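Pair request: fold both.
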Amino acid sequence: MSEPAFYTRVDEDTYDSTPATASPWDESLQHGGPPAALLATAIEATRPDEPDFPIARITVDMLGGIPQGRMRTEVDVTRPGKRVELVEARLHVDDRVAVSATAWRIRQPPGSTQEHAAAPLDLPPLPDEQPQEFFPGTSPEWGYGRAVDWRFVTGGYAAPGPASLWTRLRIPLVEGEPTSPIARMLVVADSANGLSGELPLAEWLFIPPTLSVTVLRAPQDEWLWFDAHSTIGPHGRGLAQATLADRAGLVAVVAQPLLVAPR
């Protein structure tokens, strides 16, 4: 991967995208994952000294194609609170809001429910490095695809249907800066639909205008277990869902409504 990161920082709230953010269908647009992670990072920055007040649910709305180029984030705490708080964030591109997000924070007193916590999951071992094969017709140089390490246990980008895999980022979200565990997760969470499409992507459109991730806890490791499936309804709609986990147990659940239509 030749790109150093998904974004380079210009100033406190302004960034330039790199080709690592590229959509598989149009290199002039961004995949939804990196912008979602950038907004999560902006939201986390409103409480930089309070690690025990993390994001518990984030919903990211893509308000059309997300252009490559220079972009600016802004954040408002719309419902402050000591134990529960609502934050809104927006990503501006070319003087318009291209992506918006709302996030609930829930305070987590460390260890307060440890004796009742779910047990670790029995997950498959991490496969050896695999050839990175993407959607049929997609360039092997696809920026976002190459910026992530995809190691499938079942399914695959080129195979319609459910998929399960281990995944991690190869590059940071912002050049020269650490990527938070929640941001690492958001970069890949928007791939639930693409990983588990039930119909051939050369013949069908699956458009997810929004992404909702409900978080049990932050991932503890760079490798994330991703188990995704999609369901097609009878009236041109679908639902993509995914479970995200690590060796310590469940991390989050993902849901995306889909517009399903012939190309």
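--- second member of the pair ---
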Amino acid sequence: MKKYFFIVVAGLCFCLGLMFVIVPGPSLIFFIAGLFLLSFYYPKARDYLSHCQRLLKVSCQQLDKFFKR
């Protein structure tokens, strides 16, 4: 029962993320939240989550360098 709840909430997060891609909003936060919920039960989602976290870290470092100039 708990697993299905996580899957439904993760699906909702992904749908909200897709909606916010079209309409301005925090789409990245919802995608990462959905991956986080799915990573409890699916190892592939855990891999995608760590990949997204690495990319987000790199992009934030690049933005910091850009704004530091």
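Observation on the second member. The chain has a mean pLDDT of 92.
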